[in-house]
Design brief:
Bound molecules: iron/sulfur cluster
Largest sheet: 5 strands, antiparallel
Strand content: 15-25%
Shape: elongated
């Protein structure tokens, strides 16, 4: 094959692979699942916009204060040392996704994903301003005019305002939102705050206003691998081909059997309401976000035709083939057991969390030394971190060998909230108390005003070899 033929073929292939985006104007839908989604949208967005304004004691109820390296979540304060909880939480989130996907398919996508939630709100604004689907299509096809400019301009202005407020709220999780609002009112926002408000606002506007279904189809990694978690017992939205085909229009009240038709009247309403623009009658497709809009609208049509509901419904592949659906199957049980164990472990661990941390580091310069009194002395560098919201005075003690002496060089150990105190200490004992060259000793740190704040940490005490004692 000569070079120019190959190049022409490549170009032809490139052109075929590129699909221009078809603009989707999803029709408004009412029904049980639409109501559930509205409930999800109102609940989740209500939480998102309201939570940063809530106060707990003297601080914001939820605040990820990165400069101070403190995370406030209601009455708890987390420090970088508590990063394990964050990792734990992420594992729980990932496992929850596996569990719920195996059990109920893409419920996350249909009801709780931020992309779905914000797109729903943007669609609602669009409908309020531009009208229903047919009016939107008409307006889209119309040439630019003063009327069109005013309508689409106001839609975009409201979208941008909402997006910027979304960005502002996002930053409010990281900077106290009341101070942020004050800075905004006085036009004295910092450069990073301004950047993140605009960046997050721009992302919201772009994703929910412009990209919409393209985020789900081309950008979301979950859409790509979720099918690996599916099996024949996973809940999916499906068209009942056996019942619906052959499709065709007919008069209301006419007997479809006489006309050799199934229950699908080929009204294409299920396609018109689909936010990703697919036809569920063509089978399960990865673009389907399980929003159940097609279920609601088809149920409506079935009602009008006096046919039983459920031509498009939540079902499983096994059920569609007339087999039994197994809800409790090995993968669901394994995910569920791990999930329960992890959640219980996290709750228990947080409930047992002590807001003080003690690290014991042996002085690396000397193994041990003998004092003038003939005692063996080891030096340690202790690191005390007060993770409580209040300052505390602590008592420090050491056990593990008989007659241990502890010398902290100070009368009182006071550590302010959030402070990390480096405390060199000396531990001494008579060599006759040593049975071996290296023994374990235990440091105990306890707040003087409450026995609930107490922690222990072990260290090694080194002494001379047996012959030298
Ligand atoms: S909404 Fe129902 S009846 Fe109408 S085309 Fe879709 S499947 Fe057929
Ligand atoms: S096919 Fe149905 S469930 Fe899937 S995205 Fe479209 S409307 Fe939603």
């Amino acid at each position: 094959m000569n070079k120019s033929t190959a190049t022409h073929k490549d170009e032809a292939l490139e052109q075929e692979l590129y699909a221009k985006r078809k603009k989707i104007f999803p029709r408004e839908v009412h029904g049980i699942f639409a109501n559930l989604r509205i409930l999800g949208v109102v609940g989740l967005l209500g939480l998102y916009y309201a939570v940063p304004w809530l106060q707990w004691d003297d601080h914001q109820a939820v605040l990820f204060d990165l400069p101070a390296r403190k995370f406030y979540i209601l009455g708890l304060t987390f420090w970088p040392q508590d990063f394990i909880y964050m990792a734990w939480l992420l594992i729980i989130a990932a496992l929850s996704l596996f569990f719920f996907t195996a059990l109920a398919g893409r419920v996350w996508c249909g009801y709780a994903c931020p992309q779905t939630v914000w797109t729903e709100v943007f669609l609602w604004i669009e409908r309020k301003i531009e009208g229903d689907r047919s009016k939107q299509i008409k307006l889209d096809k119309a040439p630019m005019s003063g009327h069109k400019f005013a309508i689409t301009g106001s839609k975009h202005a409201i979208w941008i305002l909402l997006s910027l407020y979304t960005g502002f709220t996002f930053v409010g999780f990281f900077t106290p939102i009341r101070e942020l609002a004050q800075s905004l009112a006085q036009f004295s926002l910092g450069p990073w705050e301004t950047f993140w408000i605009i960046f997050y606002g721009f992302a919201t506007y772009g994703n929910a206003g412009w990209m919409r279904e393209q985020v789900c189809i081309y950008m979301c990694p979950y859409a790509r691998f979720q099918s690996a978690m599916f099996d024949h017992d996973t809940l999916v939205i499906s068209y009942d081909e056996k019942r619906g085909d052959p499709r065709g229009s007919r008069k209301r009240g006419a007997d479809p059997k006489e006309q050799g038709l199934g229950d699908c009247i080929d009204c294409t309403m299920c396609v018109q309401v689909c936010p990703t623009g697919i036809d569920i009658r063509e089978g399960l497709q990865y673009q389907c976000i399980s929003c159940a809009a097609c279920v609601d609208v088809c149920d409506d049509i079935m009602d009008k035709m006096n046919y039983p509901k459920g031509l498009v419904r939540y079902t499983t592949e096994n059920a569609l083939q007339g087999k039994k659906t197994h809800l409790l199957r090995p993968r669901v049980l394994i995910y569920g057991t791990f999930l329960l164990a992890l959640v219980a472990g996290l709750v228990y661990s947080i409930s047992q969390r002590v807001p003080v941390e003690l690290d014991v580091i042996r002085d690396r310069n000397t193994l041990y030394r003998e004092t003038d009194m003939g005692l063996v002395e080891n030096v340690y560098n202790l690191k005390l971190i007060n993770k409580d919201k209040h300052e505390h005075a602590y008592s420090l003690s050491v056990t593990g060998l008989p007659n241990l002496e502890l010398d902290t060089g100070r009368r009182e150990i006071k550590v302010a909230s959030g402070e990390v105190l480096n405390l060199p200490v000396r531990v001494r004992t008579d060599p006759i108390n040593l049975e071996r060259t290296s023994s374990e000793i235990i440091f105990t740190l306890e707040a003087t005003n409450t026995s609930e704040i107490k922690t222990t940490q072990s260290g090694r005490f080194i002494g001379p070899a047996a012959g030298a004692r």
